Amino acid sequence: MGFRPLHDRVLVRRVEQEMKTAGGIIIPDTAQEKPSEGEIIAAGTGNKAADGKVTPLDVKAGDKVLFGKWSGTEIKVDGEELLIMKETDILGIVE
Predict the structure, then answer these.
(1) What is the pTM of this model?
(2) 80 within 8 A of 31, measured Cβ to Cβ
(3) Spatial separation of the C-alpha atoms in residues 33 and 25, rounded to whole Å
(4) Which residues of the chain have pLDDT under 50?
């Protein structure tokens, strides 16, 4: 892949959600919301403080994360739609 996020930014691939409800109803593509769960593909080196010290990120490549509905910026890398966002937009890590 030809993309590396800088500083406190991460590159995220959305994880597709199920197309059925718990009751077995199939939800059409047009009615589905974009998932707010994803996998970290790449992460920057960390946040740089005013004194020059770099604080490493709490997330790393491979982590499954939850993020806000309107978080990040959609980009295309190698024909795949991905999100780039700041680490502060991530709500938590799914374990």
Answers:
(1) 0.74
(2) no
(3) 16
(4) 31
